[in-house]
Amino acid sequence: MYQKNIGEEACHKTVIVLDRGPKFAEDSQCVNLIKRNEISSVVPNQFRDNRNANFKDLPIHIKDETTQGQPPEHMGTIKKTLWNCSIEAALEFHRVVTDLFPNGSRQLRFVMSDFVGRALTKSWAETNDLISYEELIDALSTCDVPNPKSDATSFSVLTGIALGLEAISEQSSLQKNIINMDPTKRRHNKKRRNTTRAISNDPTTFKEEVEYWRHTKRIDPKTLSRNQRLHEDGELAEKSKSDGLILTNKGNIIVFTSFNKPNDFNVIISDLLEKVKSQNQMVESLVDANRLPIDELFVYIVNISPNFHPEKYGKGNEPSIVIEDLDIPPQKVKATLFNCQAGDELNSVILKILLDIYDLVSTTVSGIPMKEESNPGASISYDVELLHRRESHLLLKTCGLLEKGSQLIARKDHGNFDTVKLKWLSPSQKLKSEMFPLLLDSFPATPAYVNSREAVCLTSFIVNNNKNVMLKIENPPETIEPNLCGNLISHYITHEEATGVMLIQTVAFGPNATLYGKLKQQEKEGIKPNLNYTSFNQLMKSMGTIPESIDSDTEPAIEENFEKAKRSTSYFPASLKDTFIFNIPEKFEPLLTLIPKSELTLEELEKCRKWIYSFIGSKNGSEPFTHKILDCNLLKRTSTRDEQFRVAADEMYKFLRNFVKNSPKHLEICNLFAKLLNFKEVSPHELEIVPSLTGSESPRNRDQRSSSPLAKRSKKLAPSQIWGKNEVINLYEYFNDLYEKEHNAKWRDFVGREKAGDKNPAPLYPNLNLTPATSDPRLNRGGISG
């Protein structure tokens, strides 16, 4: 949801109405055990008379760090009224909104209802800054505690609801900015005003319009979210927005009250509908630039009763939360009634309303290891519930992990909503940062019960200790591959250092996700992302030539470059999938840069030698060349150090053999590498060094270009310039010399003499016995007789 249209959503403006009637002075019979950094709703049995009787006053125990091993210090007792519970619920609502929407795009206002309605916050914030906690406490401190002896007939929650409707009709600063940027959205547009009256006052026309759009567009109302729904039809809302050129004004009113008669709810709704209608008519007639008609309103009535109330429910019949929904299409009002008890049920109702208004979801971090003071050597696992935006679960839903009956979904005890349970994954030294999957989105998160001991420990661990937490999916389906060391990581909890806000980040997984740290490359026309561009660039640079003169014949240079290209590409992986060393070229420098050169200096030769010795020495190391999971056909997905070394050595040897004919120094480097790693060495006699590639008469390579002017080559001599005038030529001797030169240039000595040299030539017939046969007695008699 973009900032520009948040002003048109119901979540933008919310008014909380607090009933301060005498009924709220009643004891809630719900007490909290308060310790330092801990608030728990669990009441020990010793503070109860029986299950259905009132609780005794609960002593407050404060435990300090200096009193370790000693009983907690008794500081006093506490009793909570329904007024205390409603104030705590309002503060908790404010805390969650502040944590999840720190930019102030979701505005809150507080109204108190007693004899007359009183606005605790005068207007919407001018700078989109939500009212601070301190300002809210100061405003609430001006309210007196409800008096149980006051006349109940003098108090009415309707006065506070009337003020809430006036607050919803007021323009917020964001809505004012939208109107200033787009004057067509002003509400005194005559066409829009008439359309509003027609829809509001004629239910038949409205119903026909809804049915028309529902059937022609084939909309399933169940697929529409609450923020898209207008009288259970989102298409009509989009139509009115596009055709009317208007700024829709929506809002929420949350009423904390207490009543016993079921008819009281109907009275509240009837009065509210009348006030909405009259409020809209007044705004339309006055054409007030600072007010807007109410297009859509969501009302939440929270009916709070004391905990374990025996008079109302009877023994053993304590109720759970009862929710009643009521839609009034002509008035565009949706009302929801929550009947709940003070305590845990009220807390769950607040969470339910938060999830509904702000489109939030719940995630429970399970299996958090924590140590107990009573048993420091043992560790117990706890769960912590977090609230955050729904978009964080989008990938889970896309992969089918949140279907009905999924093992990840758990139902809350009192909240009538689901939570997604993800497992805590303890950090490990083996998890390298470059192996971590891609993070897709990041959203603020906050604990559902911020004062619980478990939530305090988790928040302190992440925010104060600068730690991070990974959340994994237990027993994932086989169709989804793990994305980190055999685990399927779905989320990552961290915090923003600048603001201290806790963040929940979505981790990429699934068949269509980019895994293993590989970023998605932007698709560009004509570019292949898996080509070995490094080798192609080196080849083009090495093949570039400059003729010695303009008049020179370039055919020999082209032929020489063609032969050189054939040698240089005898091993040439064009795709990165077919190579390992070119996927991480920084690990194999300077060889990848120096070896393709035509000549090597002594300094470059020494650099190559040092790298080879360093490469051999790293054979027995523990760390692999890279932890990245490369898309390489030569390696397995999870390769070891030994496998990476073997593949790198084989590939480097093939690479060095490409350039052994460039110069004797290239041959020396290749043979040094081959000798140390037991590869076949290249003999100098096996090579045919092309003189023109290394001589001064060859076209110069681009990497050997100098600033000196090019020397002109002599032109070919004509026959008249070779022989003198009147010179007699013996054609036999002339052609004989040409033949001998051509024959001697191609002549090759006996291979045995080449290998052994002139001093120790190899025998032509090694098996021939040349020793004299003196042992034969017939030779001594002068011959052999017939």
TrEMBL record:
<keyword id="KW-0132">Cell division</keyword>
<protein>
    <recommendedName>
        <fullName>Protein asunder</fullName>
    </recommendedName>
</protein>
<dbReference type="GO" id="GO:0051301">
    <property type="term" value="P:cell division"/>
</dbReference>
<dbReference type="GO" id="GO:0051642">
    <property type="term" value="P:centrosome localization"/>
</dbReference>
<keyword id="KW-0131">Cell cycle</keyword>
<comment type="subunit">
    <text>Belongs to the multiprotein complex Integrator, at least composed of IntS1, IntS2, IntS3, IntS4, omd/IntS5, IntS6, defl/IntS7, IntS8, IntS9, IntS10, IntS11, IntS12, asun/IntS13, IntS14 and IntS15. The core complex associates with protein phosphatase 2A subunits mts/PP2A and Pp2A-29B, to form the Integrator-PP2A (INTAC) complex.</text>
</comment>
<keyword id="KW-0539">Nucleus</keyword>
<dbReference type="Pfam" id="PF10221">
    <property type="entry name" value="Mat89Bb"/>
</dbReference>
<dbReference type="InterPro" id="IPR019355">
    <property type="entry name" value="Cell_cycle_regulator_Mat89Bb"/>
</dbReference>
<comment type="similarity">
    <text>Belongs to the Integrator subunit 13 family.</text>
</comment>
<feature type="region of interest" description="Disordered">
    <location>
        <begin position="757"/>
        <end position="786"/>
    </location>
</feature>
<dbReference type="GO" id="GO:0007346">
    <property type="term" value="P:regulation of mitotic cell cycle"/>
</dbReference>
<dbReference type="GO" id="GO:0032039">
    <property type="term" value="C:integrator complex"/>
</dbReference>
<dbReference type="GO" id="GO:0048471">
    <property type="term" value="C:perinuclear region of cytoplasm"/>
</dbReference>
<keyword id="KW-0963">Cytoplasm</keyword>
<keyword id="KW-0498">Mitosis</keyword>
<feature type="region of interest" description="Disordered">
    <location>
        <begin position="692"/>
        <end position="713"/>
    </location>
</feature>
